[in-house]
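Re: How this chain folds, sequence and tokenised backbone to follow
How to read it: Take the token row as a discrete description of the fold.
Start of record: The labelled sequence and token lines come straight after this line.
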Amino acid sequence: MGYRWFALRPGLSLSPISIASRVFRGAKQIATASNVRLLGLLILLPLIWGFMLPLSNIALAQVSDDAATDATDRRFRQNLCIEYLSSLELPSQDFEGTAVGGLSALTYDLKTGQFYSLSDDHGSGQARIYELDIPISESDDGPQFGPATVTNIIRLTDADGQPYSGSFDPEGLALTPQDSFFVSTEGEPSQGLAPGLFEFDRSSGALLRQLPVPEKFTPVFPEPDLDEENQSPVSSVSQSELPQSQGVQSNQGFEALTISATGTAPGEPLRLFTATEGPLIQDTTAASINGQPRDRLLHYYLGEGRPLLVAEHLYPLSPLPGSVFHGLSEMLALDGEGHFLTLERALTPLGFDAKLFQITLAGASDISSQESLRGTLVDTQPIQKQLLLHLNELGIGLDNLEGMSWGPRLKDGSRSLLLISDDNFKSFQKTQILLFKLSQD
């Protein structure tokens, strides 16, 4: 039997503790639910209490996990309920000369019934998307789920038809009605690389276009002081070692990506949404017991002519107390009316943690003209959110969940929902796929 939760159930109001992303990048390579209990107590707790970076102090309206506003707020989809059905693991394997792993995103083709998953293998120079067959059916004995198999590979190439270098860090994936893929990347502050939004041909993997991203997302470091006589740096410290003044932080760029199509026919306009995993460096503020780190969510309109950035909105994270890292991993359009599911994933001393929220863009302020989100922001209305499910309450061991996608409709008309984990190409982690049923009473 599955477990059921309702979006309007009471939840927990959490206070944030955010840690530098450099700690997470190292820690997530060694942390799993099975081994992190010992490692966390011996290693991660000193990091939490000894090397905490101040990230948040919000003076705007707080958004609690149980309900962003009154339970009757009609801006939300009412009475959403989610039921956990089953889970499976995709075995470690090689496919056409590549290691199948690092699956950070998932998307579904309603017409063919195939899933596609993006490999976050940015150090290999082999940016790629795998086609997956994941059977989902129902019987009197319950849901039939899997096994999952890899059936094809799509290798992504740049404008010159060449494979991407190791600096290309793909994270988000969305399939369009035009038979193309959009891919979001995190960028790399040490190389001054901004996060990116790229469109690729579905069949060949060739680059079709790159969307413009505001300059505020590009990492910037101050110029080193120069000696007046010979114009050489006064200090031996390199520019990348100086304090970053602008842009995405390391491993906290565009992770979440989804598309809300205005229609299903080729040529119909699209609305694309992406969000940073963590705050921009200029949006980080002093720590506060009631603060919430401030992500940015971007809304693009893709029709005839140039892509249009419609708005940016403030997405308030809901960190777990004591978490080593907490970020927005994925988002998924619920409808074409500004409702979404979001997946927030955390690394704690006891393992991975994850929460699903319903969010609405209704009433959220456009912050596109705000170069920094520091300060009180009393006139800024953040995105409102409601806790839908705390996955750790399911009683199953969680891995590094990063991707989320709709699946086929179930017999009762409800929607299937799948989550997938990124195993970081580590033998002690796994590619975990969870199956849920989402319905509205």
The longest helix spans residues 36-50. The domain at 4-215+249-440 is CATH 2.115.10 (Tachylectin-2; Chain A). The chain is about 5% helix and 40% strand. Confidence is low (pLDDT under 50) at residues 1-59, 66-71.
